[in-house]
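Task card 7
Instruction: Convert sequence to C-alpha cells.
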Amino acid sequence: MRQAYLREVGWNLDVLPTAPQHDVIALFFAFLVAGLGLLAWVIRKYRREARHHIDGVEEAGQ
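Output:
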C-alpha cells in the first residue's frame, strides 16, 4: 500500500541511490581505513612499550 502511494506521488525514499558495485567499493575503503588505523595504533603502542622496556633494561643494568 505504502509503496503504491509513493510510486503514485513520485517520491523516492533513496536519498542517494547507488549501484551495488559502489556499495562494495565504499565497504572496501571503509575496511581499508579501519585496518590502516588499527595497524597504526598497534605500531604506536608496540613502539611505546618497546621504548619503555629498553629504558627499563638500561636502568637495571646501570
